[in-house]
Amino acid sequence: MLKVDDVSVSYGKSQVVYNVSFEIKDDEKLILLGRNGVGKTTLLKSIIGLLPAKTGDISLNSDKVTKLKPYERSRKGIAYVPQGREIIPQLTVQENLELGALAHKVDYAKKVEEIFEYFPVLTQHLKRKGGVLSGGQQQQLAIARALMSDPKILILDEPTEGIQPNIVSDIADILTRYHKEKKVPIIVVEQNLRFARKLGDRFLIMQKGSIVAQGQMDELTDEHSKKYMSV
Ligand SMILES: Nc1ncnc2c1ncn2[C@@H]1O[C@H](COP(=O)(O)OP(=O)(O)OP(=O)(O)O)[C@@H](O)[C@H]1O
């Protein structure tokens, strides 16, 4: 379980996240919604330690991580797939996967076989450079790399951005299966409502740095999307 308690985040004097609190249990997939610029990525970055929380606390399974550095939170089991994927394009698919396991207590050979069961497409491209894969394949590689660390929670920032619909649907299926089999909670920032509805159990909506609505995924109405999500 991840608990975010009263977290505020600023860039210098400019505050972007205001006193956000929420919990996610191990059997949940949570979707974070909201218009561009409301602070979703900033909130995620404070959870993984790339930005300091000005107030509040973040804990993973009752273990406070608020003061830990990003690599320390990663070792504790917080895995992050950033917006824009950020695989290493000059490295091969295999090398990217090896990097994912680096500095984590996992048996690479065993783990990679397990990960290939979720991402079979990667097995055909192991020796190719990451940068030559299609956008959808790169996103699958980015997620696979994050999962190589055997995380306790997986956090993704707009995983469907710029990806064709059939791959988007595959990614929702893969994440759903992984979550069910590994009991790993998932937090996703997402604009694609179809994907959000397919994957999510619960939603949070942010506006101007605060959480303004939340509920079970089937409680997300057109009213919510008109009020808080359409441009
Ligand atoms: N490095 C930074 N320095 C100063 N301000 C920033 C920085 N990064 C983001 N911001 C500002 O913080 C606010 C929230 O940005 P953030 O990226 O968290 O929003 P978001 O909800 O994730 O939007 P998007 O969906 O466009 O990614 C915006 O006003 C943005 O301009």
UniProtKB/TrEMBL annotation:
ABC transporter domain residues: 2-231
Magnesium is among the record's keywords: no
Gene3D superfamilies according to UniProt: P-loop containing nucleotide triphosphate hydrolases
Gene Ontology process terms (BP): L-amino acid transport
UniProt KW keywords: Amino-acid transport, ATP-binding, Nucleotide-binding, Transport
SMART domains on file: AAA
GO molecular function: ATP binding; ATP hydrolysis activity; branched-chain amino acid transmembrane transporter activity
Residues annotated as transmembrane: none
Pfam assignment, any one: ABC_tran
Domain of life from the UniProt record: Bacteria
Stated family: Belongs to the ABC transporter superfamily.
PANTHER family: HIGH-AFFINITY BRANCHED-CHAIN AMINO ACID TRANSPORT ATP-BINDING PROTEIN, HIGH-AFFINITY BRANCHED-CHAIN AMINO ACID TRANSPORT ATP-BINDING PROTEIN LIVF
NCBIfam families documented for this protein: urea_trans_UrtE
Name of the protein described by the UniProt record: Urea ABC transporter ATP-binding subunit UrtE
Species of the source: Butyribacter intestini
